[in-house]
Structures are given as C-alpha cells and as structure tokens.
Amino acid sequence: MFEINPITLLLLLLFLYPIIRGFLFKFSSNGLKGDVEETYRNISFITALLSGVYFGKKIFIFHDKEIYMRIYNLFPKNTLKFIENNTLVIYAFIMPILVYIIYKLFVFLLDIISRITIYPLIDGIEKFLFSKKNIFKRFAGATFQIPKAICYVLFVTFALNIISMVAPNEKLNNYLEKSLPYKQICEEVVIPVTNSTLAKKLPSIINDSFKIVIKDSDSSQTKQNKLGNTIIYYNGVTLDEGVRSNSKIDEFSKTLARKEATSFGKAKILYNWVGNNISYDYDKADKVLHNDFNVSSGAIPTFNTDKGICFDYSCLYVAMCRANNIKVRLITGEGFNGVSWVSHAWNQVYIPEENNWINVDTTFYKGGNYFNSKRFELDHKAAQIAGEW
C-alpha cells in the first residue's frame, strides 16, 4: 500500500498554497505589494537564520582564526570560556542575537530596493493586465506567488533541520530521511550554508551507515538483545575480525608515527593519514544499507584497497593505534549527516598525558576537524563502546 510521507506532503502543501491562492484571487498590485513585503521579510529571516548559524558556528565552535582572534580581544576571557564550554548558550543566545541583527539589516536594505525598483514595476504590470482576460490575470497572480511559495518551503525545511538536530525524534527522523524533497533542499540549500566545507563532501557521508546483527552462537536466528551467548556482527564480520591487523599495517603505522613522542601526537598523525588517504566506498555503503553483506569489511581490506565506510575507517584506526601501543576504542552511535541522524561509527583514544579519552572521527575528516573537536557535540550522539583495546 502506498504511504504518503507527511514531510513531503507538508512541503508540497506549503508550496502550492500561495500559488493556488494567487490563482483564485487574481493579480492585484496592492495585494502583490503586500506579498512582496512579506516575501522579502521571509527572505531576510531565512538569510539571517542561515548566516547567524553559519557565523555562530564559525566563530564560537569551529574557531575561525581570522574572525576568532578579533572576537577574542573584545570579550573578557572568562566570558568567552563560559560561552565555548556551553553549547546551549551559543544556540540559545549568541546565534539569535546574530540572526536578529542580520535580519534587521536585510529588511532595511530590501525595503529600500523594493520601493525604488519593484513597486513601480508592479504598478506597470497592473496597467498592462488591466485589459486582459480574467484567466490571464489568474495565471499572473499564481506566477507572482512562486517566490513566496519557495520562501515558505525553505523556512520550514530549515526549521525541521534544526529540530531534527537539536531535539532528535526517531519517528520524525525516519520521515525526514525518506522525504526526497526535504533531502534535496537540505543538500542544495541548507547544508552548504550551515555546514560549509562539510557540505562539499556530503555524498561521502550522506548514506554512511552500518548494520549490526546479533546472532546466537549456536544458530543463525537473529536476536533482539545481547543476553546469553551471542555473537555481534558488524557489516557481516565480528568486531575482532574487523580490527584484525597484519605485519604490513603494523610496520607502516609504527613508521608513520615514529617521530612523535606523545600519544596525542601519534594519534593525530594516524587520524590525518586515515582521513586523508582512505576514500569513501559508495558502492559498499549502498550494499550494506540494502542488507547485502557480500563485502569485505575491516582494517585489512580497507588498508589494501584504500576505501571503506565508517566501520572500516574506525577499524583501521584501531589497528594503527594498537600498533603504536595507544589505547583505543571503537564507538557506535549516530551521526548527523546534515539531513537526518544515521548509524555511524567512530573512535576514542586515551591520552595518558591528560588522563582523558578524546573523540576521533576519521570518516568525517574531509568535512573539517574531527580530532578532539567541540563539533562532536553537534553531530554525534548515542555513543556506545563497542570495543576497547
């Protein structure tokens, strides 16, 4: 039975509503001027929202060097430290202030532009349509509502994107993930603005997933829990098989990190190498997502082929850390790919100099700094330790 996705339906209705309304009420200069004002306010708000989130992240979370140093000199050090250690403050106060300032600026500028250029044009169109038939006026009314329709869709898409990230709900997440219009708008409009360089690598992570199957050790029957004598398979292999290494990987890893004296330095070198040299395997991701486990998974095939998906990245990183006597974990959980939350795997390494475990995500390497970075709080959740070595 055909099932209508409520997110797709919502976006469709939002797009059609102003167009149908414009068709029914025909073209009117006064009405259109009011619509223009509403539209440029909507455009201003969407632009301000995107810009506020982008610059808020860039300054206070990603620490853009050029901008951050200027801000650093303006804020008292204790205040800046408090802001950086409380992500909620950034989202609840800093970003709304940025959004409000940008919004007011854009409204002011667009209002001036509209009064000088758009309003006279609208009066001219009304004179042109005066002697035309009603059906022509109706189509004109519908056509001039398209910008408003686009603004409605963009505004709701962005709102849903924020809600799905900061207040994840499994049912909503499933709807968002299956809505093709929502995903398309996110990929083309929302993500490139809010995630900057990460968006350029979106195809590499958009379908990043892995499947965990728990089977009884005596049979092939799938279990729903981890009780009893069970074996857990990740993309068709056990965890021990996944992180298994060989002399080639071990020797290479030792040579790669030999000049670094600290665990932190070695871990960072290994992170950079894996993230920079392993390519995302699109075909394998598609197979795994469709329950086809006739693939090679784990550290060895990933090292040999220079490609894999998140589980493979994480397994190879484990093998390379172990070769350098670095305590390491493989973590399973969920990652936010810019559209919805998907199954994901990453690592943690223990830094004895700091007596602390830090987060490392080699899969997201090409999207920015994911080595002991604050951005982990934004797009990783539900972390569980799958294994520790």
SSE diagram, text form:
Elements (H helix, E strand, L loop, with lengths): L5 H20 L3 H32 L4 H10 L2 H8 L2 H43 L4 H10 L2 H21 L3 H9 L1 H15 L2 H4 L1 H4 L6 E5 L13 E5 L2 E2 H5 L3 H11 L5 H15 L1 E2 L1 H8 L9 H7 L1 E2 L1 H14 L4 E9 L4 E11 L4 E5 L15 H4 E9 L1
Parallel strand pairs: 4-5
Antiparallel strand pairs: 1-2, 2-3, 6-7, 6-9, 7-8
Helix pairs in contact: 1-6, 1-7, 2-5, 2-7, 7-9, 13-17, 14-17, 16-17
Q: What do these coordinates show?
A:
The protein is of the alpha+beta class and 389 residues long. It has helices at 6-25, 29-60, 65-74, 77-84, 87-129, 134-143, 146-166, 170-178, 180-194, 197-200, 202-205, 239-243, 247-257, 263-277, 282-289, 299-305, 310-323, 376-379; strands spanning 212-216, 230-234, 237-238, 279-280, 307-308, 328-336, 341-351, 356-360, 380-388. A 4-stranded antiparallel β-sheet has the order 8-7-6-9. Strands 1-2-3 form a 3-stranded antiparallel β-sheet. Strands 4-5 form a two-stranded parallel ribbon. It starts with 5 loop residues before the first helix and ends with a strand.
